[in-house]
Amino acid sequence: MLNNNFTPFPVLTTERLTLRQLTPDDAAAIFSIRSNENVAKYYVDDPAAYTLDKARQHIHHLTRENSSNEWIVWAVALKNHPGLTGTICLWNLSVEHATGEIGYEFKPEYHGKGIAQEALARVIQYGFETMRLNSIEAFPKSANIASIKLLARNGFVKKETFHSERELSGMEIYILDRVQR
Q1: I want to staple 156 with a disulfide (CB 3.0 to 4.6 A). Which of 37, 145, 146, 176 is the partner?
Q2: In which element (H, E) is residue 37 found?
Q3: Residue 40 near residue 32, CB atoms below 8 Å
Q4: Which CATH number, 3.30.70.260, 3.40.30.10, 3.90.1150.10, 3.40.630.30, labels domain 12-134?
Q5: How far apart are CA 135 and CA 152, in angstroms?
Q6: Partners of 99 in beta bridges
Q7: Which phi and psi (to 5°) does residue 131 adopt?
Q8: β-pairing, 81-94 with 72-78?
C-alpha cells in the first residue's frame, strides 16, 4: 500500500544536499529558474510571462498540495548554503497502482555539477523504500537530452514518445520499476 503521508514534512539529506520544504523565501530563486529561457524551454509556459508574484503563488500552491498529500515537492539546497538550487518532486501519485511521476528543475549555474543526480537518487530511494511505490515515471521533452541522460543513468527505461497529443507532443515516457533497482 502506498504511503503518501507527508506530515511531518520529510527532510531528506545526501552527502552535499538538504531536500527541504519550500518556503516563501524561495520565491526569488523559483522566479530565477522558471523565467530562465534555457530552463523554461522545456515547460509549456512562456518564461517571459513568469513573474515574482507567480513564483509566490506557485510556492503557495505547492505547499498546500504537500500538506494534503497529493504530491511532495522538495527545495534542493546545498548543506553549506541553504538557498534553493532547484526543486524535485513526486506527483501524479496513484494510490491504486502505487505509481508516481518525478519532476525536477535546477538553476542553470548548478547544471553539470552532479546536484540533480544526487537529488534524484535520494528521491528515488525515498519513493521506493518509504512511499512503497511500484514504479516512477518521468516525461521529459525529447529535446531535453541532459534530463534523458540523467534518467537513463538512474535506470529509467524509455517506453514511448508522444507525437500527436498537443500537450504531450515531443515528450517521452521513461519508467523505473522497483524490480529494476
Answers
A1: 176
A2: helix 37-40
A3: no
A4: 3.40.630.30
A5: 15
A6: 94, 135
A7: -80, -20
A8: antiparallel
Where does residue 123 rank: exposed (0-12), middle (13-18), buried (19+ CB within 10 A)? buried
Q: Long-range pairs for 38-41 at CB < 8 Å and ≥24 separation? A: 38/108, 39/105, 39/106, 39/107, 39/108, 41/143
Peptide bond into 10 cis (omega under 30): no
Instruction: Profile the chain (181 residues) by mean pLDDT over runs of 10 residues.
Output: 90 98 96 89 73 92 82 95 94 93 96 97 97 95 93 92 55 84 57
pTM (2 d.p.): 0.91
How do the domains of the chain map onto residue ranges?
12-134
List of residues 6+ apart from 53 with CB closer than 8 A: none
**Cβ pair 127, 180 in contact under 8 A:** no
